[in-house]
């Protein structure tokens, strides 16, 4: 039967060998998007209330730079959660509460949040939205731009 010291020596040598092998494996560098590339991607979007510069979209993550000029409907994602990091502008973010759906004067669908928490957000602020949490930019002062990171977005 090998001694404990012998087993430890073999384990250490095996671990060092595995670490060296891992260190020598070429790993993809990840995704890089320059600020200039993102601004160009936003500017190339059609005019409208929302523009999206896609940075990376996989089965487990979605990373986008989003620019909004007017409020849109409140939304809930059944799966995954989001982080919004405000990079430009100012808006009122509403989270929590419940979504109330109705029809507008021209027959359009309207969804707003009732009994949620409202906060004015500006450059540098972060909004974290867990799965199943209603969220909405109810007011936008000119425009707001934010980096959206969605983890485990599922099918929505």
Question: What report would you give on this structure?
Answer:
With 156 residues, the chain is an alpha+beta fold. The chain has helices at residues 4-24, 35-43, and strands at 50-57, 61-68, 81-95, 98-103, 109-114, 117-122, 126-129, 135-151. Strands 1, 2, 3, 6, 7 and 8 form a six-stranded antiparallel sheet that branches. β1 and β2 form a beta hairpin. The chain contains two helices and eight strands.
Brief rundown of the structure:
This protein has 156 residues and is an alpha+beta fold.
Identify the CATH homologous superfamily.
Answer: Jelly Rolls
User: Helical segment tally?
Assistant: 2
CATH fold category name: Jelly Rolls
The level-1 CATH class: Mainly Beta
Taking all Cα atoms into account, the compactness measure Rg is: 23 Å
- What does the main sheet amount to? 6 strands, antiparallel
Low-pLDDT segments, ≥5 res: none
| N-to-C order of helices and strands | HHEEEEEEEE
Helix and strand content put the structural class at: alpha+beta
The residue-averaged pLDDT reads 87
Approximate shape:
globular
Helix % is 10-25%
Reported CATH architecture: Sandwich
Q: Please give the domain count.
A: 1
Query: Strand-residue fraction?
Result: 35-45%
């Amino acid at each position: 039967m090998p001694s404990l010291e012998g087993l430890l020596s073999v384990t250490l040598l095996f671990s060092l060998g595995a670490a060296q092998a891992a260190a020598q494996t070429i790993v993809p560098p990840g995704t890089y998007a320059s600020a200039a590339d993102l601004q160009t991607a936003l500017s190339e979007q059609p005019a409208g209330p929302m523009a999206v510069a896609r940075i990376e979209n996989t089965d487990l993550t979605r990373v986008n730079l989003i620019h909004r000029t007017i409020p849109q409907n409140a939304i809930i994602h059944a799966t995954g959660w989001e982080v919004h990091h405000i990079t430009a502008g100012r808006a009122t973010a509403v989270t929590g509460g419940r979504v109330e759906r109705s029809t507008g004067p021209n027959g359009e669908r309207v969804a707003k949040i009732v009994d949620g928490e409202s906060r004015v957000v500006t450059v540098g602020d972060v909004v974290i939205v867990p799965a199943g949490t209603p969220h909405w930019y109810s007011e936008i002062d000119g425009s707001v731009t934010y980096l959206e990171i969605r983890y485990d977005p599922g099918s929505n």
